[in-house]
Structure formats: C-alpha cells, structure tokens
Design brief:
224 residues, alpha/beta, 5-stranded mixed β-sheet, 29% helix
C-alpha cells in the first residue's frame, strides 16, 4: 500500500455523519466507531488514516499539511480563507448564517448599525457590499445576549433550527449565506497524491445527498 491519505475529521455530530460518508464511499475504518478516547485511527487496507480535531481547527490541519484532506464548514472557509482547495460540497451539516434581532427591531439607516458576531470578516464583507455603516462587536459565545442587553442592534450567527433565537425573543431577519460541510485538500498533497484524492472525492460525491438544482459543487474537475 502506498502512503496513507491523512484525513482530519471534525469532532461531534457532524463528524459522525462525515465518517459514515467516508465509510460508505469505500474508506471504512472500524476502529473509529469503537468507544474509546483515541484520536488517530488507520486502515492500511483502505489507505486512510483518520484523526479527530476541533471543527474550527480542521482547515488549519489541512492548510499546514498535517492532514491531506479534511471536512470543514463553509463558515470557517469564508471567515478564515485558508489556503486550501475546496473539492466538494458534501451537502450535510446544512444550516445558514443569518442576521437576527429582537422582534420589534427596525433598522435606522441614519445611524451606524451595531453588529455582534463571531464572524467579523464575513459580516464586514456582507454589509460592505450593501454600503451599510456598521460597528462590529466581536464576541465568542452567547451572541444572543447582545441585543437583549443593548450591546448591539443585531447579531450575525449560525442558525440551525431557530429555537435558541425564539426562546430569547429574537428572530432571523436576513439570510447572509447558506452553509454546509465541504471537503478540502492541502494544495501540495493534492499535487502529490492527486489520483488517490480524486478517486476518493469521486466516490464521496456518489454518496452525498443530492444538491438542489443550481447549487455549486465546486468540483468541476475540482475548479482549481
């Protein structure tokens, strides 16, 4: 067997979905599903080595070459713009980034909009394209508190079910961008292991839930 393909998997519920996709695509590693605290697993026969990392760190492992490929959320790729190839929209882990505010909120365009978020680069570009003056307030958690305590006018955050917003008397008022999990590759690894990574990508694509009509897969001959 040639050198293994090193795969960074995101820990958590998304990671479980992602691993099952790899397994059904022909790259199983039964040890991944054992109940233990190991972080690295390999299957020489399938030619893969998996390791679990924090979801927000996947792109770093791939960009730096510690992993050949990995699966990261589109939000991470847009916010941090890592120097990696985006190979495939896996069409899982779907949610959206949205602007949310208190239910009685009305935007006064005569004054600067105060926006609380973890995603300052995405927010800056979103409102910049609209010509809207904003003051970004960077927070790392409990973003929903900001408009309630008058720290901000609105928030920009990831919305899955909307339950947290609803329970805090907030509502999503604009969608910034739909999000899903993406297969990414280290640029050097893609060059030196191209045939195996392309084969893996092709087999993964065959197992992905179908994309909606008009959605971009980013993988037309990998568009790289």
């Amino acid at each position: 067997m040639n050198q293994l393909i090193n795969v960074a998997l995101p820990k958590g519920r998304l990671g479980d979905q992602v691993y099952k996709l790899f397994a059904t695509a022909g790259f199983p590693c039964p040890a991944v599903e054992e109940d233990n605290r190991k972080l690295i697993f390999e299957n020489q026969q399938a030619g893969v080595r998996y390791f679990w990392v924090k979801p927000s760190d996947v792109a770093i492992y791939v960009e730096r070459g510690a992993a050949d490929i990995g699966v990261a959320g589109k939000d991470i790729l847009l916010e941090y713009t890592p120097d990696v190839y985006e190979l495939l929209d896996l069409n899982i882990g779907k949610c959206r980034m949205a602007v949310a505010a208190q239910k009685d909120f009305r935007d006064n365009t005569d004054r600067t909009l105060r926006v609380a978020t973890k995603f300052k680069n995405i927010v800056r570009e979103y409102y910049g394209n609209r010509g809207r003056a904003i003051d970004i307030i960077k927070l790392n958690g409990s973003i929903e508190l900001a408009p309630i305590l008058n720290l901000s006018d609105v928030i920009v955050d990831i919305v899955e079910t909307g339950t947290t917003l609803k329970e805090n008397n907030l509502e999503a008022i604009e969608t910034v961008i739909p999000l899903s999990a993406r297969l990414i590759a280290n640029k050097a690894s893609f060059q030196f292991k191209s045939s195996r990574i392309e084969r893996l990508c092709s087999q993964m694509k065959a197992q992905c839930p179908p994309l909606e009509k008009g959605a971009c897969t980013y993988d037309s001959d990998f568009n790289i």
